[in-house]
Amino acid sequence: MAHNLCMTTVNIVAAAIVIFGVVYNSARFALAEQARELASMRLLGCSRLDVSYILLGELGLLTLATVPISCGLGYGLRLPADRGRC
User: Fold this and answer.
1) What is the rounded CA–CA span in Å between residue 22 and residue 79?
2) Is residue 59 a contact partner of residue 27, using CB atoms and an 8 Å limit?
């Protein structure tokens, strides 16, 4: 029982590290791709808060859109593994 809890904790920590890496990488790509547009918005008078809100809002929407898909895929991939157990 203790071994199972330990492995579950290790899996959760590993998943959290992977999720952080994916979100961070996505943020870096979004910033690199939209650097000129964001600079143009600053030039037109938008504050840093407005520009940050737009960039983080886009990342938030992307994250919210992918969470249900990821949960569905995880559940779907778990089913064949459960069928193989005795």
Assistant:
1) 25
2) yes
Return the number of other C-beta atoms located less than 10 Å from residue 79's C-beta.
8
- Report d(CA 84, CA 47) in Å as an integer: 56
For the chain, where are the alpha helices, taking DSSP H only? 2-33, 35-43, 48-83
Q: pTM score, two decimals?
A: 0.61
Tokens of 83: 């069928």
Q: How many helices (H) does the chain have, and how many strands (E)?
A: 3, 0
pLDDT along the chain (86 residues), means of 10: 80 90 87 88 92 88 88 82 67
Looking at this protein, which amino acid is placed at residue 4? N
